[in-house]
Structure formats: C-alpha cells, structure tokens
Amino acid sequence: MAAAEAGDGRLMRLLVLGCRGQLGSDLMAVIAAAGHTADGLDYPQVDITSPDSVAAALDRSGPDVVVNAAAYTAVDAAEDDEEAALAVNGHGPAVLARHIARLAGVRLIHISTDYVFPGDAEEPYAEDDPTGPRSAYGRTKLAGEQAVLGELPGRGYVVRTAWLYGEHGHNFVKTMLRLQAERESVAVVDDQIGQPTWSRDLAEQIVRLASSEAPAGVYHGTNSGSCSWYEFTREIFRLAGADPERVQPTTTDAFPRPAPRPAYSVLGHGAWSRVGIEPMRSWREAAAEGVPRIERAMQPSPDRS
Asked: What is 137-176 written as a DSSP string?
C-alpha cells in the first residue's frame, strides 16, 4: 500500500504534544493511517512550560515536524487565572519554539484559535487581519502565536481553529446529543456565528500541511461555510433522528459567561488556496459524517459478562 509522503518524498516522523486531547487523538490516528510515524506525548510525560522537559522530548523523538495541540482551553476559568493560562498557551509555545529553532530543519505546527480576533467582523477574518482578543484565553493564545512566528520565522506554522468537536473529550456535539435524549426541548443561542469544525477533518488538514512544501505562516483550520450555534444544533438533532423543532433560539445575554464569546468568528481560507492546498469541506458535509460517528462512540459498550 502506498504511504503518504512529505513534499520532498520522505516519510515523516511527527511528534504530537497534547496527544490525548480531542484533536491530538485524531492526529495520532490520521498520521499513522497516512504511513508516517506518530510519537505522542501529553502532560505529565512532557511539560511544554519546562525547557528541560521539552529538550528531553525532542531528543527522544527526533521529529521532522512537531504539532503542538497542548493548551489551556478552560475559556471561562482563564478570566480568573490568566497567569495559569498564559503559562501553557503563551510561555509554553515560546519554550517549544526556542528549542526547535536550534534543530536544523524541524518545523512546528502550533494550534491556535478564533478568539485571537475581536469577533465583531461582518465578513470572514483573513489570516493577516489585525487581531484584538477580548478574553484572557484569546490574549494568551495570541501570545503563543507571536512566540512561534517570532522564534521560527521560516519554520513556524500557526493553524487557527474554532468550534471544534470530535469523538474524544468533551464538546458541544456530545452535550447536544445528550440533551436531546434527556429533554423535550433545548434553547441555543442564535446570535453567535462561526464554523463547526470536525477534529478529524482538521487532523487530516494538518497532516496535508505537514506533508507539503507550503511556506511557514498562519492558516485557518475550520470547515467551510458558517452558521449559528442554534442552526448547528438543529442539524445535530436532524442527524441524530430527532425533531429539529425541539431546538429553540435564544440570545447570548440569556447565558452570561465570565469570558465574552465572539459574535462573529468566521475564518477565511485564502492561505490554503494560495499554497495549492484545498480548504476544508463544508461544515454540513463534515457533520453528516462526524455526528453519527460521535453518536455511535457515545453508546455504552455491550455487556459481555
């Protein structure tokens, strides 16, 4: 069976940090399926805020490409403890990038977020649009982006994603699937617009990027198109065989949270087209495949006793 190859014809060794997370788990599977070697580490096996820990991990793996999917993702908790979020989201990528800078030819793909933008646009954010985070989480993730691009100007890649869901970990799709089984109706905000993104699709796109000769810089890793959380939930219900009319629209004001949520965080995909890589498919196509898989994964295992 032919294996996927890097742009120069080599099979790659990739090191995935945060390998047990939602995206990291899919990355490990996709990398292996593509014929590459996948080394995976997660905390406490590696602490990206520790120079010694990072150096040891890089020495053991000897990777061609490092994918940093490790992050502090508790958006609301970051408002009360920005220092803790900054340690992982800002200082950690800086430590990682500095060590990789000393290794000839090694590239870093760092996963970031739509929260680096203010969320008040009226058209998709381009990769080079001005940032302006309005939350502690967004500020710390922007610090990580800046560190990677500053320390590795020719070998550092930032892939921003949003509204991520998958088979692993906690996410919106799993919550809605559970609620549709428990409640007669659910109220979901219809005044936040974004791009539901299946983590499996994102993992495949990251491996495409790693396998290419695309220049370093910023790329937007989201499924195409856009919708509100309300519209997305109706589609989740439909795909689960439930009546979408059970989903009721509401507003962000009805669900106050410590961290402000972007009203509009649709990301543009111009960078992919410029380097000859197809942008990710539509969110509806991805959901049609992803939601049923997640629903099956949520089913209790048969009792074999």
From this structure: HHHHHHHHHHHHHHH-TTTEEEEEE-SEE-SSS--HHHHH
